[in-house]
Amino acid sequence: MKILENRYLKILLFIIAAIILNVAAITFADFDVQGELKLNYTVKAATGDNYQVFYSKGETWSEHESIKLEYTNVGEPQVLSYVLPTEVKRIRLDLGDKAGEIQLSNISLNYLWKKINIDSKALMDSEEKNAITTIKEDNDIINIVANNNDPYIVLELDTMNISELFILSR
Predict the structure, then answer these.
(1) Are 80 and 69 in contact (CB under 8 A)?
(2) If you compute the radius of gyration of the chain from its CA atoms, what whole number of angstroms results?
(3) Residue segments in the chain with a per-residue pLDDT below the cut of 70
(4) Hey, which end of the chain has fewer CB within 10 Å, N or C?
(5) pTM across the whole model
(6) Handedness of CA 52, 157, 161, 143 (dihedral sign)
């Protein structure tokens, strides 16, 4: 009987430990349980400015389908993070309102625990750009020279294999 009681005690302790670990994981882990699509990138520029992301489920752009964030760490890297609807087909990165040099790095789309990095090729291959003279990559930093006001680059998400983000997530 003593062996049987010892076995039950071990099972009970195992169940209690499993419950404690699950509660701790749910409480302290940063799970994106809402299933938000996040666009993140780091920007560095010589002047402060507003950086805006337009998102589209079709062909048109509108202000009410955009998010504007302010770059304030002039001359220093600053991470900008935008929460987008998961049905997005196109993204327009508006890189401020001024001409100048802009550095972007760590561009990624994140959904739940998955992440897809967007490299300079996606920006260079974009068929829709405005007021941008050059895009070059150097040591994982994308250097962009804007020659006019309202520089932007459009990313066609359908051509970027982002469906990997949503597989097994829905």
Answers:
(1) yes
(2) 22
(3) 1-5, 29-34, 161-170
(4) N
(5) 0.77
(6) negative
